[in-house]
Amino acid sequence: MPSSAPPAPPAVVTDDADDARLLRYSRHLLLDEIGVEGQARIAAARALIIGAGGLGSPAALYLAAAGVGRLTLVDGDNVDLTNLQRQILHTTARIGEPKVASGLAALRGINPLVTVVPVAQRAAGAALEALVADSDVVLDCSDNFATRHALNRACVAHRVPLVSGAAIRFDGQLAVFDTRRADAPCYACLFPDAAGAGEAVDEPCSLMGVFAPLTGIVGTLQAAEALKLVAGIGLSMAGRLLLVDALSTEFRTLQVPRDPDCPVCGRR
Question: Is 265 marked active-site?
Answer without folding.
Answer: no
